[in-house]
Design a protein that fits this description.
The protein is an alpha+beta fold and 481 residues long. It has helices at 22-29, 94-101, 111-124, 130-137, 147-159, 166-169, 171-179, 202-211, 225-229, 265-275, 277-284, 289-294, 297-302, 310-316, 413-419, 426-436, 450-468, and strands at 2-6, 9-13, 48-55, 58-65, 78-80, 187-191, 194-198, 216-218, 237-240, 250-252, 256-260, 320-325, 328-333, 338-340, 343-344, 350-358, 364-371, 382-391, 394-403, 410-411. The chain folds into four domains: 2-83 and 171-240, Beta-grasp domain (Ubiquitin-like (UB roll), Roll), CATH 3.10.20; 94-164, DNA polymerase, domain 1, CATH 1.10.150; 246-358, Uridine Diphospho-n-acetylenolpyruvylglucosamine Reductase, domain 3; 364-468, Enolase-like, domain 1.
């Protein structure tokens, strides 16, 4: 049984298929159709809802895609839909009123999603500036209104800060309701022959996974949910790891970052962007805020996608994985984790517990580049990460990795060997570019042709070289703000 708040109502679900998405639950089970069904894959944002969670004596709000969120993940949370924004006196919420005042809606299909993203923004960043507004709305697509009036509405909300609404007036009451829900014990949701376990510690998880080695681990669900929504497959047994506090930690010392595998990408942002500024730029373009609020660093590695953006970056940074099976733990270099397409080195009952990322050393130069059809909210055609140690004009160490170039994320070993021990100059880079053409045999798909991928991979190495020369050239499309 799971317990959660649907807007202001405490709900209990005893027998419900854990394969049910929040979108299906809202529209088909409780008749709340304000949340719209668009792409079913987390791209359009029409289904955006907001989750409220206790953080001490305050509520923290985050926007998520309801089409990729399973109901089994709602235990102990507040699910806020567009129906609940209207005040008790019948007046529109300030966010809704701003959309009216600035003519931010035409057909209206995308409007509830935009409103919910702007609501979360108004709660988390009351005086939002242009980058914050763009980030909050990048995961919401509109085909007919045009973004200018919607962005103007968001600006108007930020000018009204601090925003007073029923959510701030009744926050204490909501916190009390959430506090009454036991979130310290193992929770199980069963229905239609399927089951989802929600352990509260990594020890419980380890024991469950040994007992159910074929279970699918559910973290953010931003990839796993596609099995249900796009491929119409059934997931008989899942284990939800989002309630495990010791899998969501991040510790830091002088030498490394140690990140819990269930920590969300958004929660990783501050530390990773501070230690690796170029990685911060990649994370800004990593899917959308709704996805980053849900998706985890461990999940982006664990699903073994050849186009995941985190693995090539972590390969270039010489990251290691802590894998756990029962009470046993082992460390593995991340490049050794990927064996073949969707095939990994995980043993039966084993899971990723932590990701260890060494901090940069002196004379180490790290850059990462993402090529995609859209600037925001898009999957990479090619993602290239470069990490060279250059001392006295000589390349002492080279780690170069790509996503989207093979069946797995992979290092460019030939290009690395062509660089190590050589002078860091154009001639050396040209030799390495030639070697790079033999490191991969990319495929053609709807994102890019194999010829484009091969050409762009070598060009990215040259781009890295140009940027290392500190020339007064602007080489990045992201420098648009």
């Amino acid at each position: 049984m799971i317990k959660f708040l649907l807007n202001q109502e405490l709900r209990e679900e005893h027998t419900l298929s854990p394969n049910t998405t929040v979108l299906q639950y809202l529209r088909e089970r409780v008749g709340k159709t304000g949340t719209k069904e668009g792409c079913g894959s987390g791209d359009c944002g029409a289904c955006t809802v907001v989750l409220g969670e206790r953080h001490g004596d305050k509520l923290h709000y985050r926007s998520v895609n309801s089409c990729l969120t399973f109901v089994s993940t709602l235990h102990g949370k507040q699910l806020i839909t567009v129906e609940d924004l209207q005040a008790k006196d019948g007046s529109l919420h300030p966010v809704q009123q701003a959309m009216v005042d600035f003519h931010g809606s035409q057909c209206g299909f995308c409007t509830p999603g935009f409103v919910m993203s702007m609501f979360a923004l108004s709660k988390n960043t009351p005086t939002a500036d242009k980058p914050a507004i763009y980030e909050a709305l990048a995961g919401n697509l509109c085909r007919c209104t045009g973004y200018r009036p919607i962005i103007d509405a968001a600006y108007a909300i930020s000018e009204q800060a601090p925003l007073v609404d029923d959510f701030s007036r009744y926050e204490t009451e909501v916190l009390e309701k959430l506090s009454s829900i036991d979130t310290e014990s193992l929770v199980t949701l069963q229905g239609e022959g399927k089951v989802c376990y929600s352990p509260t510690s990594s020890d419980e998880l380890a024991a469950l996974l040994v007992k159910h080695p074929d279970a699918k681990l559910l973290a953010g669900g931003t990839d796993l949910a596609l099995e249900v929504t796009q491929f119409y497959r059934e997931l008989p047994t899942m284990i939800y790891v989002g309630g495990i506090g010791d899998l969501k930690t991040l510790t830091e010392d002088d030498e490394q970052l140690v990140i819990g595998a269930a920590r969300s990408l958004h929660e990783c942002y501050e530390a990773l962007s501070r230690v690796f500024p170029d990685l911060g730029e990649l994370l800004d373009r990593f899917a959308s805020l709704q996805i980053r609020n849900q998706g985890t660093l461990g999940g982006n590695i664990g699903n073994a996608s050849p186009i995941g953006d985190a693995p090539p970056v972590l390969m270039a940074l010489n990251a290691r994985l802590v894998l756990r099976q029962g009470e046993q733990r082992r460390e593995l270099a991340i490049e050794e984790y990927f064996l073949d397409y969707k095939k990994t080195a995980l043993q039966s009952g084993e899971f990723i517990e932590q990701i260890i990322v060494p901090k940069p050393t002196a004379n180490q130069h790290f850059k990462v580049y993402k090529l995609s059809k859209r600037l925001d909210d898009d999957i990479s055609a090619v993602c290239g990460a470069f990490n060279l140690t250059i001392e006295d004009g000589v390349v002492r160490e080279a780690r170069i990795a790509f996503g989207g170039m093979a069946a797995v994320p992979k290092r460019a070993s030939g290009a690395e060997q062509a660089l190590i021990g050589q002078l860091w100059n154009k001639a050396t880079v040209n030799t390495a570019m030639q070697a790079l053409t033999g490191d991969f045999e990319p495929l053609t798909d709807f994102r890019a042709s194999k010829e484009y991928r091969s050409k762009i991979a070598t060009n990215l190495l040259y781009k890295y070289f140009i940027e290392q020369q500190s020339l007064p050239l602007e080489t990045r499309v992201t420098s648009y703000v």
